[in-house]
Structure prediction request, 377 residues.
Amino acid sequence: MSVYIKNIKKFLPGKGISNDEMESYLGKIQNIKSKARPIVLRNNGIKNRYYAINKNQESQYSNAELTAEAIKQLESENFKIADTELLACGTSGPDQLLPSHASMVHGILATPQTEYSSFSGSCNSGMLAMKYAFMSILSGNTSNAVCTGSEKTSTWLTAKNFEDEVEKLHQLEEKPILAFSKEFLRWMLSDGAGAALLSEKPNTDSISLEINWIEITSYAGELETCMYAGAEKDGNGKIIPWRDFTDHKIAQNSIMTLKQDTRMLGEHIVQLGADYLKKVIKKRDFDINEINWFLPHLSSMYFKSKINEEMVNNGIVIPEKKWFLNLPKVGNVGSASAYLMLEELFHSGKLRKGQKILVMVPESARFSYTYALFTVV
Prediction:
């Protein structure tokens, strides 16, 4: 049996937001213009992104609503959302601790009873959802499935989340400047959702993507945490969960915001990607020269040349003309990013039957990687 992506859609809220407009949406901490913003933006190469909040930092969509909007666009003459047999949703930040993200999405869609599954994590959560959907159909459990990746990080990144910590530093007569590990991600992440329809049968009147395989691995047994939210990291690399802090400490230390150990990110994320790709090539016995399209999820354009260099050093050569990415114009949308690349390429008119697409998704949260191979049919 084979499994096919019959359609893939996206939902990006509101209008595109330029680099110069970012602070008018996220706000200025202590009403001071960020010194880190131009440095981070110069390196990440992102020119445009989308937020599910307005300039008053008021939510226009929840994460679940973003996801539901993407799913609704899958409906067509040949597929009704009500006929979904499995709903698998991945995200870094659900709207609440309980109920699960997929449950909330299902509630918004208000469709009949269906199997569901929620996947947490970071960038790979969307691919974990896709693999579950893929395996469900492959095993005969369902004949179709809808999988998603979505993020609403903007509410994590607004200035109000950091004011108490900066004020505390000011009272201690320290420089009221947020640690780079916390401010870094304010200028990296944005909102949006992608949804894919998987089926045991391909389209008959248009292209489909056959899913050849999806390989995912975790390095958490070897490396400490790199990106986290709802926790703090102590001097020994141990993660202290939000439950262990008082409400006062949570506010004063911006515990609920996203944080990134940029030192660890630079040391490991590129090297691990090449190392794992070598293992996948050997396991799956495929020729990298047969790849027509390479879709790497990059958190920053800064990593593009470094990834290419590391792959070449490991004997893996993918010419730049085969690379396809849209980070500069849609932003880093975490678990939705792979969906956004696939969606744009799928509807671009550039695909031809028989072409092969290799997707790469790194995740720095506790370091994990996905590689997935698709064939246009």
Observations:
- Residues 36 and 184 are 7 Å apart (CA to CA).
- The mean pLDDT is 94.
- The chain has two domains: 4-204, 212-221+262-376.
- Residues 4-204 form a domain with the Peroxisomal Thiolase; Chain A, domain 1 fold (CATH 3.40.47.10).
